[in-house]
Each structure stands twice: as structure tokens, then as C-alpha cells.
Recover the amino acids of this structure.
């Protein structure tokens, strides 16, 4: 069932992040944005790190997020496909989001045709990455024994440990985010160029880097990095002809902040 003509992309909300003081306001802003796109959206892609941390026990899921997950469930129920890519902060998503919310879960890179164009889609956290330490940590997080062991820890303690690690990781960025002055040296850019040597894609769409990028890779292909919902409040829109990256007005977030402070 096709409701509208536009496809929307968003990444790196990091809802529930302890390093941030405006999680509820950001979630309400996101809910407002979801409601605004329902009329012309044919598909929605959540490109990773939707949560700052997520882990599903057999009978328990993380506290919070009911407002946004409720609206996402309504969107799925209306016939609009919602694709959820696991990021490096929410890799432990199993069946709750698919069974209860109705989203389509992707744990690996995906290539698909959208409105007549070929897309390469990924959160992008390890594409072309040569950091051995990062690869070691990621492999550990995907290890079934490690996941089983973590599940044996009481949720109150396990979530406290995970959020502490996430907060330290986030605050390690200088000025809160990585730089991007020379985008041609970006690992995601170099990775996309290497893929194009073997196979054509019209668009490469990534998250993870918390920067906004919409640059040509060659005359027929573009690299899109979606920014975030921490400082950028940005999202991607594809209408079949062009891909644009747009921003939410910051004063809307300030309105929500004033509502909670009053």
C-alpha cells in the first residue's frame, strides 16, 4: 500500500542518552515530525542509533520511548513500511520492535531499488573502518555468549553500565561531534568510492558520523550522511527525482523545553 510519494530517512536520535538533558523534548519533537510526514510518506528509514542504548530481555524491554514507538506503530499499521537499521548503540534489538511495533529490522547493509533508483543503505559505523580496537569491540557485542552473559545481569545494573559507557563515548568527541572539513578523507566516502568500482548505486545513505553531507561521488552517484537529532535535527527526503537533507527549526525544540520548564 503506497500512501504518498516521498521516502524519508533519519539517523542518530540517541533517545535516552544520559549525556543529554533534553531527551523528552527531542522525542516529542520527533513525534511531531513523524505526524507531519504521514500524509506524503511512502516509506520511512530509521538509519541506526535510534536509541542511545537498547537491550531486550525475554520479558523486559527498556523503560521509556512510548510516545515515539506508539506513533511508529500507528504508521506501520497504516501500511507505510518503516525500516529500522541497528546502529552501534542499539545492536541488541531482537524481535520486540518487529512484533510489537511492526518495523522491518536490518542488521546488515542493504541494497534496494527505491522509486527507480538504486540505494546502498547502512548505519555506516564500520564501513571501511580500519580501527582494530573498534572491530574487536563490535565483534564482542555481536557474540552470542557475550549477549547471553549480559542478559544474566539485573536490568537496573546492566542498563546503568551501558549508559555509563555510552555517555563516556559521547563525551569523548571534541565539541560533541567529529569534524568533517575534508569529506573526501571520510571512511564512508572512501568506502562508497570502492563499492562504485564494482557496482553502481545512485545513492549511498549513511548515519553514524553526526555530520550532514550530500556530495557527488561521480556524475551519477551521491553520498548522503544524514546528520543527527542532537544538534542538527536533520533528515533526508527522496521524491524520486532528488535527494535533499533538511532541518527542523530549532525554535520548535525550544518551545518543548519551555513547556517542560514551566
Amino acid at each position: 500500500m503506497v500512501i504518498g510519494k516521498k521516502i524519508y530517512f533519519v539517523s542518530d536520535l540517541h533517545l535516552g542518552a544520559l549525556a543529554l538533558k533534553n531527551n523528552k523534548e527531542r522525542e516529542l519533537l520527533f513525534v511531531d515530525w513523524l505526524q507531519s510526514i504521514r500524509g506524503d510518506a511512502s516509506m520511512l528509514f530509521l538509519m541506526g542509533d535510534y536509541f542511545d542504548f537498547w537491550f531486550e530481555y525475554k520479558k523486559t524491554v527498556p523503560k521509556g520511548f512510548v510516545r515515539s514507538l506508539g506513533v511508529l506503530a500507528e504508521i506501520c499499521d497504516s501500511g507505510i513500511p518503516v525500516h529500522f537499521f541497528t546502529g552501534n548503540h542499539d545492536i541488541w534489538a531482537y524481535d520486540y520492535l518487529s512484533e510489537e511495533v511492526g518495523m522491518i529490522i536490518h542488521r546488515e547493509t542493504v541494497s534496494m531499488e527505491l522509486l527507480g533508483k538504486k540505494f546502498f543503505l547502512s548505519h555506516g559505523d564500520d564501513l571501511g573502518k580500519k580501527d582494530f580496537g573498534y572491530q574487536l569491540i563490535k565483534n564482542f557485542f555481536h557474540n552470542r555468549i557475550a549477549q547471553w552473559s549480559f542478559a544474566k545481569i539485573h536490568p537496573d545494573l546492566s542498563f546503568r553500565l551501558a549508559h555509563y559507557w555510552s555517555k563516556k563515548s559521547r563525551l569523548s568527541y571534541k565539541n560533541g561531534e567529529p569534524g568533517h572539513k575534508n569529506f573526501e578523507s571520510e571512511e564512508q566516502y572512501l568506502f562508497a568510492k570502492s563499492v562504485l568500482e564494482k557496482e553502481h548505486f545512485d545513492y549511498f545513505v549513511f548515519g553514524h558520523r553526526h555530520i550532514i553531507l550530500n556530495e557527488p561521488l561521480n556524475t551519477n552517484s551521491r553520498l548522503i550522511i544524514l546528520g543527527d537529532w542532537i544538534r542538527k535535527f536533520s533528515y533526508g527526503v527522496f521524491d524520486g527525482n532528488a535527494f535533499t537533507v533538511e532541518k527542523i527549526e530549532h525554535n520548535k525544540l525550544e518551545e518543548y523545553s519551555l513547556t517542560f520548564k514551566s
About this structure: The chain has one domain: 6-261. The first helix runs from residue 23 to 37. Confidence is low (pLDDT under 50) at residues 170-179.
